[in-house]
Amino acid sequence: MRAALPDLPVIRTLGGCGGTLVSRLFGALPRTVVLSETNPRSVHLFGGHLNPLKQLRQWHPDLLESIADFDEAEIGYPPVFGEVLQGLWAAIERYHQRIVVRDFSYADYIGVPFVWPVPHDSSLDAALQDRFTPRSVYLVRHPVDQLASLRTHRALERVLSAERFVAGSRAFLERRREARLFRYEELIEAPEAIFRAMCAALALPYAPEALTRFAEVKAVTGSLVRAAETHISRGVPLPGAGRARAELARVPGYAELLATLGYAA
Fold it and tell me: What is the predicted pLDDT for the residue at 233?
């Protein structure tokens, strides 16, 4: 009989919806290592900042013993990326730690300007095939605020259309199956309850101190504009929200996207 594949906790998000905060929360759990915004299609983006080997060398060099010989470029090929995760998993188990992968789903489902044409499939899932069973949570946000937030990144400001955002978001959610979906707004309103539920969904032990210790976690990628804040709270209104709302309202499929996400309007 074939041995069961190990479960790998995965945070799936398209960006612009609190992924950095959630990564810091999980990184604040005892003995937990977070690979931040990474998958095979993202390893060469932003100067390799999303490459798991580069992250491990910078933040967790003690875990490199089984994978130090891999080249940072070759793990853009999903089977090799999977081999790296297997080697890391062995080190994680030896040191009695846990690993969480925050997937950079943007490259897979929205893509512009990094990937074109957009594949609309998961490069991380391709890497995990026959190696791990992903245990996933989906982190989302109201599309108006999410699109406005994504456009604050200079690389996306002029290329990310409302049409591309809706198409990518719908393709992303079509792969969700039974994975639990969490809304950023609910996390902000009830951080203890929602983070506890996220831990349960990923089969990770909840630790209440993570809700305060997250401010100490620096081993993470993403927007750190609010990194100095020690309490979870709603940010200031996004200046591009009005434009995003008007553009999204004209896109076919937007109403269906709202319904899938559980937002009224």
Answer: 72
**Amino acid 227: pLDDT:** 56
Which residues does the chain have with pLDDT short of 50? none
Contact 184, 141 (CB under 8 A): yes
CA 53, 104, 238 angle in degrees (round to 5)?
A: 130
Alpha-carbon dihedral 185, 190, 192, 196, rounded to 10 degrees: -60
- Cα separation, 239 vs 224, whole angstroms: 18
* Rounded Cα gap, residues 142 and 153, in angstroms: 18
DSSP line for 153-221:
SHHHHTT--HHHHHHHHHHHHHT-TT-EEEEHHHHHH-HHHHHHHHHHHTT----TTHHHHGGG-----
pLDDT tens, 228-258? 666 787 777 899 999 999 999 999 999 999 9
End-to-end CA distance of the chain: 50
**Residue 115 half-sphere exposure toward CB, CA atoms < 13 A:** 24
Residue 210, C-beta contacts closer than 8 angstroms, at least 6 positions apart: 25, 26, 28, 29, 195
Q: Which of 128, 106, 151, 121 is nearest to 12 (CA)?
A: 106
| pLDDT for position 1 | 54
In the three-class reduction of DSSP (H, G, I as helix; E, B as strand; rest coil), residue 263 is classed as coil
What residue has token string 């899938």? 260
Q: What's the DSSP call for residue 2?
A: P
pTM reported for the whole predicted model = 0.95
Q: Which residues pair with 135 in a beta bridge?
A: 9
